[in-house]
Amino acid sequence: MDRIRIHGGNRLAGTIPVSGAKNAALPLMAASLLTQDTLQLSNLPHLADISTMAKLLSQHGVALEMNGEASGGHMGRVFSLSAETITNTVASYDLVRTMRASILVLGPLLAREGKAQVSLPGGCAIGTRPVDLHLQGLEQLGAEIELEEGYIKARVKGGLKGAHIVLPMVSVGATENLLMAACLAEGETVISNAAREPEVSDLANCLVAMGAKIDGIGSDTLSVTGVTSLKGAAHEVVADRIETGTYAMAAAITGGDVILAGGRLDLIESTVETLTRAGVEITPTEEGIRVRCKGEKVEGVDTMTEPFPGFPTDLQAQIMALLSCAKGASMVTETIFENRFMHVPELCRMGANIHVHGASAIIRGVEGLTGAQVMATDLRASVSLVLAGLAAQGETVVNRVYHLDRGYERLEEKLAACGAEITRIRE
Ligand code: EPZ
Q1: CB 167 within 8 A of CB 193
Q2: Whose CA is nearest to atom 25 of ligand 1?
Q3: Per residue in 117-152, pLDDT tens?
Q4: Which of 172, 202, 341 to mutate to test the pocket of ligand 1 (most atoms within 8 A of CB)?
Q5: Which of 379, 302, 388, 307 is nearest to 340 (CA)?
């Protein structure tokens, strides 16, 4: 298994290209199941999760063609996905267990084929993560759902019918699944308390380009008037706001000065607000965003994760690494997932002073971190250890790099280009 070795202490300076968002690309790829025509997606990041989704879709009969390679810049890859005929409506355990986002094929398969069987994804390192909201919403659209032998078995007689769905809590995945299903349902569907994440809006915009009728994009109420069929379209995946925020924090933790090319300030406003309070200077540039540290160290700040437009849970681990080296104390509260502090013991092994009390962590800034052998059990926790390693004295080796490969394209290349001493040890 590959590892990442970092020799900490270098100040980052230079330009980092921001890739297309993994969490937008995955539902967009699933949306290809909704039409017989070709959906062309550009700016797709080169990541393990994208390959997993491609494999899953090909098992359903989607013909997938890659029309362009990432060109060193931030233009990403181009995929053409054609689901002319759906040959199989079963998403098996083998793939679903490796990627929870596989659940996103449920809504489209059901809407187009009237049936779908998707393995229950089960819990994962960051929490139990049920899919009850996806299922309840689909039932409201007329689906009959049974859970048998670890599978969600869904079918609908006579097609899905529009309904008013009020989500009891904000769920990105449930909003996406229901939105896709509603596009081919008969009549009007309203999704209240919908997730407003930019990845949801990116999906909605692509669906509109495919001929869907959706109002309220970007708001918490999505109204969909069903159509009988969707057509092909060409769509560019939105910039990855989590990658943007991660590298902004990498710049900050090293006292650096970095341009995030292709990064969009409007997608990371709450992150900018938090980093600004910590003393980081973030400004728009022609290329994207410039992140510069005013002092040697950031100031301690309090923050709390929330659904968009609040501070994202997917940046919670990274800000904790940054605040570990801040002047003074900080409090970080996690409100989305019940078990997303696995990075804490590893950061503490590197010298951080963090105490967790329920959903909050108190972080007392330390003089400096020290390198260590570390590992984490999920993507964002892993990258927080990379950030800590960039600032730490001595050598840090991050194990289980496959987590990083799920969500960060060419991580070591991008950081090394800005002066980090970081290499991948291939094994
Ligand atoms: C998406 O997951 C992202 N994944 C996650 O990114 C992200 O952390 C999360 O949204 C929150 O922003 C993708 O987009 C592929 P949710 P999702 O449904 O859709 C509970 C990363 O690191 N819930 O918004 O699965 C759930 O347990 C990943 O890139 C239910 O109770 O998240 C959680 O506490 C990790 N029942 C909360 O809602 C349901 O049916 C929010 O989850 C669905 C969710």
Answers
A1: yes
A2: 173
A3: 999 987 678 878 899 999 999 999 999 999 999 999
A4: 172
A5: 379
